[in-house]
């Protein structure tokens, strides 16, 4: 699972899966779906910060353990659903404001209720937290070097690992076309939490598999000196939560 700060939680395909007429309405009404996803995530981020700050006052004393921050939050199923439904609610709020169409109002209310239910489920389960959060890797530098891989196009990505071997989300794949050569992979500057990294490669983006037999120390380069492995572990999708932080319900006094 990716971290909240890794990037977009949901995408347009996630929205369409919940509303098959979405693209048609977006075209007719001139609404930018990508922008709605961004704004929805910004709003949810503010609400998560409020939830996390609440823990400072009703949970254990602040000097016992550090409270998690937004950087530690893992995108669980309930959090992803909350974001998807919030974006759809915002989309149909805009559509209704433009046309005052009752059908848009009904959709707005439907997705508002769904967003509230997803948020409620998150509160019941708790916020997923990574103890040693590993950020998503940025694309590595992939260059051709002397070697003898079969000619053609290759796709390469990487993931960072922390000190206990937990992997972050892999980078966007980089493509390289080779002729009578092989490739070398140079990782970007390692985040402070990262101690090592893995490299994945394949002849297609969906066919990339782990190429190194042991984790590569941060700062070291990787050269593909053998034929590509064709089967094995695929690129990582992020960390599982180490624990779930309950969100207390605080009742006002008086």
Structural commentary:
The chain has 254 residues and is α+β, with helices and mostly antiparallel strands. It has 2 domains: 4-131, no CATH class; 141-223, no CATH class. The chain is 35% helix and 19% strand. It has 5 helices and 10 strands, in the order H-H-H-H-H-E-E-E-E-E-E-E-E-E-E. It has helices spanning 12-18, 22-29, 33-58, 77-99, 102-125; strands spanning 127-129, 141-149, 152-161, 174-178, 181-186, 196-202, 209-210, 216-217, 222-223, 243-245. The strands form 3 sheets. Strands 3, 4, 6, 7 and 8 form a 5-stranded antiparallel beta sheet that branches. A hairpin with a 6-residue loop joins strand 6 and strand 7. Helix 3 (33-58) crosses helix 4 and helix 4 packs antiparallel against helix 5. The model has no long low-confidence stretch (mean pLDDT 92).
Total separate domains: 2
Nearest-integer average pLDDT? 92
Question: How much helicity do the residues have?
Answer: 25-40%
Distance between the termini: 41 Å
Class by SSE composition:
alpha+beta
Strand tally:
10
What characteristic shape results from the CA principal axes? flat
Order of helices and strands: HHHHHEEEEEEEEEE
Number of helices: 5
Biggest β-sheet, characterized?
A: 5 strands, antiparallel
The amount of beta strand, in percent, is 15-25%
Uncertain spans, ≥5 residues at pLDDT below 50? Answer: none
Rg over CA atoms: 22 Å
What multimeric state do the chains show? single chain
